[in-house]
Structures are given as structure tokens and as C-alpha cells.
Design a protein that fits this description.
There is one protein chain. With 759 residues, the chain is of the alpha+beta class. The protein folds into 5 domains: 344 residues, TIM Barrel (Alpha-Beta Barrel); 80 residues, Immunoglobulin-like (Sandwich); 84 residues, Immunoglobulin-like, CATH 2.60.40.10; 84 residues, Immunoglobulins (Immunoglobulin-like), CATH 2.60.40; 84 residues, Sandwich (Immunoglobulin-like). Helices cover 16% and strands 29% of the residues. An 8-stranded parallel barrel has the order 1-2-5-6-7-8-9-10, surrounded by 4 helices. Strands 13, 14, 16, 17 and 18 form a 5-stranded antiparallel beta sheet that branches. Helix 4 packs parallel to helix 5 and helix 8 runs parallel beside helix 9. It is elongated and about 170 Å long. The N and C termini lie far apart (154 Å).
Length: 759
């Protein structure tokens, strides 16, 4: 705790000794609070709100190097329930004073790991409640640890550097919810200058002390930044001499140089006005003339720091309970903390858990730490809500929307107990939600109509019977429904036609295709009545994925539904090229084609009996011929072929080829024989060919077969070869032919028949 000093007020007071403790090395931060990073000190102080000090607890110095020191000054062990009660009252920051010296060993001031772990436990109670925490070096101002004079400078620098190096490394993973305060009320303890000096003409001893304090602040900042992790982003509070307003406004006080800009905060302790707030022999009434001291305090902070862009925090303040002067203390709280909100300077209420004590200057008990009730509820209510009415909720906006819901978001109102949300329905505002936790900053309105414009919402904060003004009205629209019935209507080798159900709440649709590891735009369809689209220029025999969503056009923007589940769609293979007859016999036809580069195989069909019937399924795309057997001789057939591509879920087929006409040959001629011979002639006979249109006869002559006759009537079964030589041996052969419209096709030749003419 500290005492406020003015150039016109002489401060001679004693302060009950206070102490504090920290947590374990390399602590894991709480995951309950939303991360705060990248904020300036000005932004952080704007969020900290009103704070509460866990006084005379972790800063207590009894019990030596033991965890028992926490309760050595008569306060109970800190519990999560205790911090929860502080949070529930509306406090948003907890300052945890910690004394480290008694918990160190050796020349390097090594902190007891159990002490660090205990400090961490208490810090996490606060972080879990989404509160800010101020952690400091508290009652270690002694020649044994640090003492702000040149005589003890080397020792002091070593202690401050060691403590902050260890603490900062231990908490290096904590975000900006955790603020470090380099020192608590550094001063020349035990001297005439301990609590007061001439701000304009400080004595040499004070000037020397301020110079050392500047060095110690710089040492602490350097150690914190060098500790790594998130410490480079951390906000750091630095005090002047005694943490008084005079100590930080005297000309010799200097803010440290900081490698991270805009992260320093001036730390001030101000029990103002002293005669009312702290002096046991002072007044118990907060009169109007005492307001001047409060005004001086805030005006000085404003002119020296706020106006220069440097934020400040009043880390300790309170008004002692003097024989139950509750009404006057409430007046003070409303004025003092009202100024805090006006000037944007967070104030942290000192609490030593002493409500009625012998020293009426030290009765700063507010939370009964055994019952977890408040000694003077009217007083702490005035601290939290000095105006008696709540400030309006800020940052009220739409965070997101779906087809049937809207999620609203706002900034936490630290003075509120909860929030009321209203919706305009049929021109009437109706309450739709009562949120009873001021830490809640989002709410989802459900059961809305899809694709509907201009839903209107507003909200206000409340605490008890007090309410804030309403926020500005926010208007929003719901998204259209997602698209149903999304499927493949048809596909070809290079195109896929997609279809879907008409969206009743949509203005149109957007289609995307998964390509190259990402989704790419395919089409924007601006007519909601259109329910199909053909995607072209695709690769044959290839798997694709498509998705679709609807959009609704509103005057100011388009809003989109959720994407459909990705739809798998495959293109067909290319049609088969080069389909032709390779060869044929009387009962078989061999077909051939070009290899399909996008195929897994082929299907062949034959036209038979007025319909197409299956012939073969060829499962190897490298196979490029097939023989159709068991056909009728001398018969015309038609064949067609198509490729197929095997996908995991199904096979898909290319287009059928044009029908290919193919004819079988007639049978070979049976019963070929010599019927009779003459001196110059031979009569040949054979059986009638049932599949023939006629016959061709040849004679072997001069080493080759030469044409003898072409018989165009299949019923003719004999032929006389004339003009032969007498007594000569001859060889003959015969084959049938079948006349087709486009050409003749021939059966196999008979075996050669020998005949000898007569002499």
C-alpha cells in the first residue's frame, strides 16, 4: 500500500507491511480466457476496468521461505471462490502483490519453485475468469534485497534482474492478460524522506534515489523483454519514487527505454485525499473542498501522461472505514472512481481484509475472505458503478449468421451484472434474452427465417435495478438455405451436368470445383429458377468434386448459405476410335479398334432379333481386338463398341460407336468331284451351297491357279470345263461366294481335285 502525496500536503503515515508471491518456472497459461495479444498499453488499460488488490496475503513476509507466509498476517489462503466473488462483483483486474525475497536462496536469489507454483495457482484463478492480473515485487525494499540508493545499487540491480528474469521466464507463455509491475513504492525506507519530498526541489538523497529507481525500472524492463516467449508483447507498469504522483512527475524521473513501443504504463498509488482516505487522525467526512485533491490528482495524471499518450494506472487506492462512515465513503467512491472512468485511468482498490481495526487509517477491508461477502456492499457498488447508472454496452455488432440464426457480439461491460437483448418484432421491441453473466459477450438468436432481410436487435446492460441506455440498433439479414438435391444429372467425356432443387430463399447459386488442391470458381448463376448447369472442358475419364451454395442478394451485399457436401462426379471415357473388321470366316468375325487412353475396358454388342445384345466385356484397355464366334455363314451382322472407365463406386461408359456392318463368309463347297471326262472336257460336280450366291472355279496351269468360271447361281451344281487336251491330267478347285450389297465375300477353297482327259 502507498500514500498519496501532494506539493501542499505533508504525508506522515505508517503503512502496514504488505507482501506477495509468484508461481512455478515455465508455467502453462490458463486456456479459459480469450487470448489478448498485440495490444498497446493504452488499449490494455482501456479494457482493464476497475481492479481489486489481494493485499496482505502473498505479500506477507511472515513464515520465512515457506508457503505458510501467505496466511502469516492473518488472512485465509486464497481460493478460486474468493476470486470468483471479486469477479461477480464487477471487478475486472486483480493486483497480486508478491514478496519474493524471503522465498529466495543463494547469492543469485533463486526463487523457491513451490512459491512460484502457488503464485501461478492464484494467477490462474483470475485468468480463468477472463480477468487481468498485475504481478509485482512488493515488500522487498530492504538492504537485504533492493534499496533505492547508490550505496546499495549493485545489490539492488542484481536482485531486481534476478527476480524479473525468473518470473518473466516462468510466465513467458501468458498473454497480455498478465501485466508486470516492476516495483512497489520504491523509497528510502526509514528516512525522513520515506513518504514525502519537495517535488520541485528534491534533496540530494531523494535525487539519488530517483536515479537508482530509474535504473531499477530499466533493469526490470530489460530482464522481462529478454525472457522470451510473450514477454516482448507484455505491458509493464513502472512507478516513480514511492509510487506517488509527485514521484512520477518530478523532473528527474524518467520512463525506461523499451524495445517494444507503447507497452509502458505509469504506476501511481493515491489514497487521496490523505486526511479522509488514510490519515487515522483526519476527517471521516468527504466534504466538497476535499474533492479538489482528487481533481488535482487526475488533472496531473492527465497533463503529464494521458495527454502525451502514456497510460497510467492507480494501482492502490481506498478510503479507510472510520467508525462506520459508510455514507461518506460512498460519496468518495462515487467521486473518485467516477473521475477514474472520466479520465480513462483504471483504479485498483486496496483490500487488506481489515474492516474494523485499532488503526483507523488502515481499515481497508472490503471482501470478507471467510464468508465471501462484502463488508460494505454500498461502498463496493459505488466503486464499480459510481454514476449509479451503467455505461452503455460498446462494440455491439453481428458476429455471424446462418440461415436461421444470428450471432451477436459485444464488449464486456465490467460494471454490469448482465445484459438484456431485444428484437424488433412487428414494430414492437421484445426481450429475447437475459444474460446473467457479464463475462458473456456473444449470443445466438435462433429460429429465424432464412433469406430474410432487416432483422433488428438492440441491447442494454443491467446491474440490480440499474440499467444502461440501449445500444444503437443493429440490422442484419439471414443467409439463404443451403442447396438441396445436388447431384449429377448427366455426363459425357468432357462435360458434367449438375442439377439441384430450386432454392426458395435464394437469388442464385455459386458452383466451385476442386482443382489443384484448392476450390476454384466455376459459375455464378444469377437466376434462382435455374436448377442445372453443365461444366464443360473437362478431362475424359477423370474424377471431379463440385460444391454449390446459394446466395441472397440484399441491397447492401450478398449473403451466402453453407456449402453443400462435396459431390463426386466422373466424366465418361472417350468413344472408341478405329472400330473395324480385322478378318472374318464363315462362323467368326474378328473386330479391332484403337486403344482407349481414358478407358478401363470395352463392351461389344451385336444387333440380333431386332435388338442389341451383349457380346463381350473386355476388362483390359490394352486389348484392341476381339473375335465373335458361333456366327452363321454368309450372314450380315452389325456390331458396336463403347469404352468404360472403372471408378470406385461404379463404371461409366463412353458413347457407342456407329454400328459396324460385318459379314461372314459362305461355307466352303462340299462334294466337289469329277462327274465325267471326255478327250477335251471334264465335267465337275458339287453340293449346293446353302450360304452361297455362286461359285468360282480355278485350274492349276503353268505353275499358278487361273480362273476358269464364275457361276452366279447357287443352285447350279456342275460345270463342264472345255477345250482341254486329250490324255492330260488337270487340277481344279472351287469356292463359294456370297454377294453382299457392298462387296462379295468368299468361302475357303476346296482341296485340289485331279481329273484326266481321255485319249
Amino acid at each position: 500500500m502507498a500514500i498519496t502525496k501532494k506539493t501542499f500536503s505533508v504525508v506522515a503515515a505508517f503503512i502496514t507491511v504488505l507482501a506477495a508471491a509468484i508461481l512455478m518456472v515455465c508455467a502453462t497459461p490458463s486456456a479459459s480466457a480469450a487470448a489478448v495479444t498485440g495490444k498497446t498499453a493504452k488499449q490494455i488499460t482501456a479494457q482493464m476496468g476497475t481492479g481489486w488488490n489481494l493485499g496482505n496475503t502473498l505479500d506477507a513476509t511472515g513464515g520465512g521461505n515457506s508457503l505458510n507466509s501467505e496466511t502469516s498476517w492473518g488472512n485465509p489462503k486464497t481460493t478460486k471462490a474468493m476470486i470468483d466473488a471479486v469477479k461477480k462483483q464487477g471487478f475486472n483486474t486483480v493486483r497480486i502483490p508478491v514478496s519474493w525475497g524471503n522465498h529466495t536462496t543463494g547469492n543469485n536469489f533463486t526463487i523457491n519453485s513451490k512459491w512460484l507454483a502457488r503464485v501461478k495457482e492464484v494467477v490462474d484463478y483470475c485468468i480463468d475468469n477472463d480477468m487481468y492480473v498485475i504481478l509485482n515485487i512488493h515488500h522487498d525494499t530492504s538492504t537485504q534485497y533492493y534499496y533505492p540508493s547508490s550505496t546499495y545499487k549493485t545489490q539492488s540491480v542484481k536482485f531486481v534482474k534476478s527476480i524479473w528474469t525468473q518470473v518473466a521466464k516462468y510466465f513467458k507463455d501468458y498473454d497480455q492478460h498478465l501485466v508486470f509491475e516492476t516495483l512497489n513504492e520504491p523509497r528510502l525506507v526509514g528516512t525522513e524522506y520515506e513518504w514525502w519530498f519537495n517535488v520541485n526541489y528534491p534533496d540530494n538523497a531523494v535525487r539519488d534515489s530517483i536515479s537508482v529507481i530509474n535504473t531499477l525500472n530499466q533493469t526490470a524492463v530489460n530482464a522481462i523483454r529478454a525472457a522470451g516467449g510473450k514477454n516482448n508483447d507484455r505491458c509493464i507498469m513502472v512507478p516513480g519514487y514511492g509510487a506517488s504522483i509527485d514521484g512520477c512527475t518530478t523532473s528527474t524521473f524518467k520512463l525506461p527505454n523499451d524495445s517494444t513501443p507503447n507497452r509502458l504504463i505509469v504506476s501511481v498509488h493515491a489514497y487521496t485525499p490523505y486526511n479522509f482516505a488514510l490519515n487515522a487522525n483526519g476527517t471521516a467526512e468527504f466534504t466538497n473542498d476535499l474533492k479538489n485533491e482528487v481533481d488535482y490528482l487526475y488533472n496531473t495524471i492527465k497533463s503529464h501522461f494521458i495527454d502525451k499518450g502514456i497510460p497510467a494506472i492507480i494501482g492502490e487506492t481506498s478510503a479507510s472505514n472510520k467508525n462506520g462512515n459508510s455514507v461518506e465513503r460512498v460519496k468518495w467512491a462515487k467521486y473518485y472512481f467516477g473521475k477514474s472512468k472520466t479520465y480513462g485511468v483504471p483504479c485498483v482498490l486496496w483490500d487488506n481484509n481489515v474492516y474494523n481495526g485499532n488503526d483507523k487509517g488502515e481499515c481497508h477491508g472490503h471482501l470478507n475472505r471467510k464468508t465471501l461477502g462484502w463488508y460494505d456492499k454500498n461502498f463496493v457498488d459505488a466503486v464499480i458503478n459510481p454514476s449509479g447508472s451503467l455505461s452503455a454496452v460498446s462494440g455491439f455488432k453481428v458476429k455471424g449468421q446462418t440461415s436461421t440464426s444470428v450471432t451477436l457480439q459485444w464488449n464486456k461491460n465490467t460494471t454490469a451484472g448482465g445484459y438484456i437483448i431485444e428484437q424488433q418484432i412487428n414494430s414492437t421491441w421484445k426481450q429475447i434474452a437475459n444474460i446473467k453473466n457479464n463475462a458473456t459477450t456473444t449470443y445466438t438468436v435462433k429460429g429465424l427465417k432464412a433469406g430474410t432481410a432487416n432483422y433488428k436487435f438492440r441491447m442494454k446492460a443491467y446491474k440490480g435495478t440499474a440499467t444502461s441506455s440501449y445500444t444503437s440498433v443493429v440490422s442484419t439479414n439471414t443467409n439463404p438455405y443451403g442447396v438441396g438435391g445436388f447431384k449429377v444429372k448427366s455426363q459425357s467425356s468432357t462435360a458434367i451436368t449438375l442439377t439441384w432443387n430450386k432454392g426458395t430463399t435464394a437469388s442464385g447459386y455459386v458452383i466451385e470445383k476442386y482443382d489443384g488442391g484448392k476450390w476454384v470458381h466455376v459459375a455464378r448463376i444469377k437466376n434462382a429458377s435455374t436448377t442445372s448447369y453443365t461444366v464443360r472442358s473437362l478431362k475424359a475419364g477423370t474424377s471431379y468434386q463440385f460444391k454449390i451454395r446459394a446466395f441472397k442478394s440484399y441491397p447492401d451485399k450478398n449473403q451466402y448459405s453453407t456449402w453443400s457436401t462435396p459431390l463426386k462426379a466422373n466424366t465418361n471415357p472417350y468413344g472408341v476410335g478405329g472400330f473395324k473388321v480385322k478378318s472374318q470366316s464363315s462362323t467368326a468375325i474378328t473386330l479391332t479398334w484403337n486403344k482407349g487412353t481414358t478407358a478401363s475396358g470395352y463392351v461389344i454388342e451385336k444387333y440380333d432379333g431386332g435388338k442389341w445384345v451383349h457380346v463381350a466385356r473386355i476388362k483390359n484397355a490394352s486389348t484392341t481386338s476381339y473375335t465373335v464366334r458361333s456366327l452363321k455363314a454368309g450372314t450380315s451382322y452389325q456390331f458396336k463398341i463403347r469404352a468404360f472407365k472403372s471408378y470406385p463406386d461404379k463404371n461409366q461408359y463412353g458413347t457407342w460407336s456407329a454400328p459396324l456392318k460385318a459379314n461372314t463368309n459362305p461355307y466352303g463347297v462340299g462334294g466337289f468331284k469329277v462327274k465325267s471326262t471326255g478327250k477335251t472336257s471334264v465335267t465337275l460336280g458339287w453340293n449346293k451351297g446353302t450360304s452361297a450366291s455362286g461359285y468360282v472355279i480355278e485350274r492349276y496351269d503353268g505353275g499358278k491357279w487361273v480362273h476358269v468360271a464364275r457361276i452366279k447361281n447357287a443352285s447350279t451344281t456342275s460345270y463342264t470345263v472345255r477345250s482341254l487336251k486329250a490324255g492330260t491330267k488337270y487340277q481344279f478347285r472351287i469356292r463359294a461366294f456370297k454377294s453382299y450389297p457392298e462387296k462379295n465375300q468368299y468361302g475357303t477353297w476346296s482341296k485340289a481335285l485331279t481329273a484326266t482327259t481321255k485319249r
